[in-house]
Amino acid sequence: MNHDMSCSRARPAAARILLATAALAAGSLTGCQVDVGGQTLPSAYYLQDDIQYFPAGPEFKLSREAAAQKAYKKELAADTSAGPIR
Fold first, then answer.
1. How far is the C-alpha of 9 from the C-alpha of 56, rounded, in Å?
2. CB 12 within 8 A of CB 19
3. Where are the domains positioned within the chain?
4. How far apart are CA 21 and CA 27, in angstroms?
5. Which residues pair with 78 in a beta bridge?
6. Which residues in 28-64 are b (16+ Cβ under 10 Å) and which e?
7. What is the largest distance, in Å, between two alpha-carbon atoms of the chain?
8. What is the helix (H) or strand (E) element at residue 73, kind and residue range?
9. Which residues contact 44 (CB under 8 A, 6 or more apart)?
10. CB 69 within 8 A of CB 58
C-alpha cells in the first residue's frame, strides 16, 4: 500500500519535468527577436526570411496636387489675358 503512494507522487513530478522540457524545447526551436543590453537581436532564422522590398517613391509627395495647381494658374492666366467678355 505504501508502494502505490510513492508511485502516484512520482508520476506528477515526472510529468511536470517532461512538460517543462517540452516547453523549453519548443521555445528554443522557435525563432524570435530578443532584447539584450539595449540591442534588438534577430531570430536564428533571419537568413531564411523573405525579403520585402518597397521601391522608393517620389521625393515630393504632392506631385499631382502641384500639377493641378499649376494647371489651374495657367488656365486662370489664360482667361484673364484674353480680356473681358463682351
1. 64
2. no
3. 2-58
4. 10
5. none
6. eeeeeeeeeeeeeeeeeeeeeeeeeeeeeeeeeeeee
7. 119
8. helix 63-81
9. 31
10. no
Residue matched to cell numbers 480680356 = 83
Backbone angles phi, psi at 14, to 5 degrees: -65, -35
Joined grid coordinates for residue 45: 532564422
| Strand 39-41 relative to strand 34-36, pairing | antiparallel
pLDDT in tens, 23-68: 777 666 666 777 788 888 887 777 787 878 888 887 888 999 999 9
Q: List strand residue ranges (DSSP E) for 2-70, in order.
A: 34-36, 39-41
How far apart are the C-alpha atoms of 79 and 73, rounded to whole Å? Answer: 10
Q: Which three cell numbers stand for residue 4?
A: 502505490
Q: How far apart are CA 27 and CA 32, in angstroms?
A: 9
pTM, two decimals, is: 0.31
